[in-house]
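Schema walk-through. Below, the input block comes first and the output block second. Nothing else is stored per chain. Lengths vary across the set, and this one has 418 residues.
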Amino acid sequence: MFVSFFPRPRLFFLSALLWTAVVMTLWYALGKDVGAAVGLPPLPPGTRPVAGAAVFWSGSFLWFDIYFAGAAGIFAAFWIIIAPHPWAFWSILGSALIIFTNYIQVEASVAINNWYGPFYDLIQAALSRSTPVTLAEFYVKIASLAGIVGVGVAVGVLTRFLVSHYIFRWRTAMNDYYMAHWDRLRTIEGASQRVQDDTMRFSSTMESLGINFIESVMTLIAFLPVLLRLSADVTELPLIGHVPYALVVAIVVWSIFGTGFLALVGIRLPGLQFRNQRVEAAYRKELVHGEDSAERAQPPTVSELFSHIRRNYFRLYLNYVYFNFGRLLYLQIDNIFPYVVLGPNIVAGKITLGAMNQILNAFQQVRTSLQYLVNSWTTIVELLSIYKRLRGLDACIQDKPLPKLDRRFRDDPLETPW
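--- output ---
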């Protein structure tokens, strides 16, 4: 799955994490000072963030673009030189470009969040008649949002187009790799399905999960500082009282609880999904043989194979009952959680309407990022089951023992998966 597309995958991903840590440390330690030295300084402390499309060509934004391009170029050049790979430009530079376009989308969301504050304060002033507000001012403020939205939409479309091509290249690399070893793989149960169907499903699932994961990480990096800044207006939590950085503490604790809770109630699903694919493949294979031979796909055999499918689906349905109950209950409570946290400050009148909307939006962005596993768990379960099947092909190519689930399935297709 990975060696076909990435150079030396284990070392590659480890080095990517280490390099990311290094460049982020340098950015927060020295980046702003260096940017000021080259004529691209950040906003002075205490200055209100830019609330319009001008943020995309501000000095600090342009300096980060240059810094990111330099860091990505150095990393790509290193790997292209020490471990040449036919798909290196797509796997390394393509990954960097996808991360960068997602960063711009997230910055567009941050710019919109910064726009919320002044806009809703303007509405509050107009409704309360505390400050004169003209119709022209109102529409100019709305029009200022158009530039931000335009950049976000354009980059979003470009990102989806790029990701689609990136993922198909990955599938092509997997297909070429497995077909080059077809003589060895053809004896594995369901080899044809694994090469054709599982690589296709792996690619399509990675397309949705991967882009959502990158968006979640980038959103978290961009919005946590915003939430820290807004925490100055929220200092108390219900039933607890004063807490430093109350918003950040509340959201992190709540999101960790939700992720751990759903991972616990859904722990049996990957194994059941894996077996579901296996019994479906066995049934389909027998029917295919029945097309060529009258001796195959006889009623007793077909009935037995289909009984395996029915039994596994019923297990799956039963396990999804309590998983969906837990997930939906958590998500419904999650909808009102921000208002519960802000309750004491709203009642005491410590925040304005604009500040409240900024907090709610930033809270939702960070909460959604931290709850990536909660919102994607069903898809992750499916991806894990596909991964387990493709691991069987990789093990065969590398002369390693088959994965445990593959070995057990040969003895009992419906063995308990836990």
